[in-house]
Design a protein that fits this description.
GO terms for molecular function: cis-regulatory region sequence-specific DNA binding. Among the domains are: about 30 residues, no CATH class; about 80 residues, no CATH class. The chain has five helices and six strands; from the N terminus they run E-H-E-H-H-E-E-H-E-H-E. About 20% of the residues lie in helices and about 15% in strands. The strands form two sheets. Strands 4-3-5-6 form a four-stranded antiparallel β-sheet, with helices on one face. Strands 1-2 form a two-stranded parallel sheet.
């Protein structure tokens, strides 16, 4: 496939399934190391609404704000969602910086996209002393943000891989 990201070596991050309890999560992972959680939520209904066809049918005419690298980047462009999907959504060129690629992430209108976001089932685990902050992004293969850090976080991939 043109523009496909080549497979990398097998990830060594520990995996856990729905048998992981909240106390186990807190003790083993929450503040100390990453974990890949599988089967802890059922987002099949959300995933079905996130196909290219479904997103275009529901939101194609809406204007979306594209940005480079992350929500706080300086370059932002407003275009109809359909234009983004059909003309701008491409694999990241490996020879270019991630901050050169426009993608849809973070600057979502939660009122206009509410019918979709309401179908998302969040993970059952929480980090004490924090509150959830959700963002939704759509980007081409190989895209991403430059090196950065923050406190504990959760990322769920609906299509593709991280």
């Amino acid at each position: 496939l043109a523009g496909a990201v080549p497979e990398e070596e097998r990830c060594t991050v520990e995996r856990a399934d729905a048998s992981l309890t909240y106390p186990q999560f807190l003790q083993r992972f929450a503040f100390s190391r990453p974990v890949i959680l599988r089967g802890i939520t059922d987002n099949s209904a959300f995933r079905a609404l996130c196909t290219r066809e479904q997103l275009l049918a529901a939101f194609g005419a809406l204007r979306v704000r594209l940005s480079t690298a992350n929500t706080y980047s300086y370059r932002k462009v407003d275009v109809p969602f359909q234009e983004y999907v059909e003309h701008l959504l491409k694999p990241q060129d490996p020879a270019r910086l991630g901050s050169d690629t426009l993608y849809f992430f973070g600057d979502n209108n939660f009122t206009e996209w509410g019918s979709l976001f309401q179908r998302y089932v969040p993970p059952p685990f929480r980090i004490p002393g924090t509150s959830p902050a959700y963002s939704f992004g759509i980007a081409g293969s190989g895209s991403g943000v430059p090196f950065h850090w923050h406190g504990p976080g959760f990322s769920e991939v609906i299509f593709g891989r991280k």
